[in-house]
Amino acid sequence: MVEVKVNPGICGLNSNIKVESNDMQNAVIHIESECGKIKKMSQKLKEVDGFKECFGAVGDCECFKVGVECGLHAACPVPTAIIKGIEVACGLALPKDVDIKIENN
What we know:
The chain is an alpha+beta fold. It has one domain (about 1-90): Sufe protein. Chain: A (Alpha-Beta Complex), CATH 3.90.1010. About 35% of the residues lie in helices and about 20% in strands.
């Protein structure tokens, strides 16, 4: 099982994503979050085809489609974090942290 912890920034509504795959293609997703919109997303996004999710175009990914349905704003990092977890759970990428640093000079 792969675990991805998301500190989304200024909203402060943390999410914890767990992804597992028994066949290295289909991914089962479990999401816990302090955000109501992400909680709604967790009810709709339970299992995806990892190949389609990780190799498809941004607009074609279930993570983003469900995010739109649940009212996430464009800068929310959670859908991308889910996809990163799917990559690792399906053996499509090695685990490596992702950083976004913002400076206002």
